[in-house]
Structures are given as C-alpha cells and as structure tokens.
Amino acid sequence: MNVLYAIEPELSVDEFIDVLRRSTLAQRRPVDDRECMQGMLENASVIATARDECGLLIGVSRAISDFHYCTYLSDLAVDESRQRQGIGKELLLRTHAACGFHTSLILLAAPAARGYYPRLGMEPHDSCWIVKRERPGG
Residue 25: inside a domain, yes or no? Predict the structure, then answer.
C-alpha cells in the first residue's frame, strides 16, 4: 500500500482530530475543544502528513520551530491500524528536514512511546521541566 507524504500547512481541523482519534494521541490532546485544535494547526511551523492512496489521512506530525536552532515536535500520530510500517519515522524525518537538520529536534514522549524514539536515533534527556497549561474553566 502506497503512502503519500506532504507538507500541508492548510490541513483541516476535522482531519487532524480524526487522525488523532485513530491514533492514541487523542487521549492527551483537547480534541473536543475545536477552537484550541484550530489554533494548534494555525500556529504550527510545519505540518507533515501521510495519506493512503485514497487520500485518507493516516499520519500527521506538527512542529514549532525557529528554523535556526530548535524544533519542537509537538505531535506525531499514526492511525493505530497503520503503525509499525515506518510512517512515524518518515513523518519525523520529513518534519525535521522541513525545519532544517541544523536544528535540534525536541519532543516529549507519551509514556507508551518512550521506547519508540531511541529506535529512531533520538537520545533521552533527563532535565525537562513543564508548567502545565491552565485549562479554561478551571
């Protein structure tokens, strides 16, 4: 089955939410907050996509970058039925290429994906801190 990759800055919020739901990433994203999800797309530096030959979105990566020093890979999602086929790796590489390989690629792994990223050549980093976002309404 062929996979078609592209950089899609105009990806629709409906397709984005749909592929997040078909992956495991929807559990950790505000997919029921359409305004937030739209803002996540509109303010991304690079959105890379993977589609099947019928045009169905089967994978997406979303990054924020200064294009000079660092790139934060904020989302990497592949439809669960299409995982373990190299799609995530290819999306990661295409996103990093679009931002520049001279930038450091940074991400926070989901607990279940911690073992995945070392296989892609990424190194763990032990000094990351987070101030969690305040959610509207409390």
Answer: yes
